Predict the structure.
Amino acid sequence: ASTLGAQAAQTGRYFGTAVAAGKLGDGTYSTILDREFNSVTPENEMKWDATERTRGSFTFGPADQIVNRATARGQRVRGHTLVWHSQLPGWVGGITDANTLRGVMNNHITTVMNHYKGRIHSWDVVNEAFADGTGGQHRPSVFQNLLGDGFIEQAFRTARSADPAAKLCYNDYNIENWTAAKTQGVYRMVRDFKARGVPIDCVGFQAHFGTGGPPANFQTTLANFAALGVDVQITELDIAQAPTAAYANTVRACMNVSRCTGITVWGIRDSDSWRAGENPLLFDRSGNKKPAFQSALTAL
Ligand code: XIL
């Protein structure tokens, strides 16, 4: 096949991109989106500061725009994200009582997931909860500080009740290298969840890489997580300067692991990227395919 989505579909996988609601009216952007991708992730529109900016008052307009548009075109949607320390409104960070926060967190998860019930392929239930450079420590956040380590389990249990059909993912960065302490910490959590029956279906590897691309053992990491009984996905791929070899290696790592079910790049054109200065994506500022596009396609 000549497009990323169609080629990925030949092995039952998807190839997706992050999408910004404000760019859907840009014809170059939407043409590439619909030609190449069969999955979308709202880049910011489902985050807490976008969906519940004030307590109990929910806004779904911009995210609905993305979801409705994708659904009408047969593209899947990844939900991103329900519980994260960043892009969190100040009122949540200001909560000082554990029971209040637990109720607020559960209500947020339930309300957002209910709104999209049946329409989200995978949800990033918890994003970036682990600290860098440590083996299993969670980073400080209002959730960690008031609810303790159990906040992740609580979030996944609430998510399962809200939409039993959605795959529930833990998503993080710098967990691609198998020997990194952070990777090992997340691995032990997933192993523990599976052993105790805490609902978790997938692990998302953000894959925000430098010019060297993925670590040589990335495929090993994907395979080892998959062996725990979860799907794995590459969820936010971008690579500084987009070297062809680095993209090919990343795609191949996924293709070689049967439970690696899909790849999402974090934007369409370099100018759409949160790392725009590093030109990390598959299309240039004019929407032309870069060399990395062909190397990714060939590796699929
Ligand atoms: C980024 C978006 O791309 C930016 O537009 C926004 O300003 C900040 O967040 N990890 C994640 C994503 O899980 O949600 C982040 O997205 C990039 C890092």
User: Anything to note?
Assistant: The chain has a mean pLDDT of 98. The chain is about 40% helix and 15% strand.
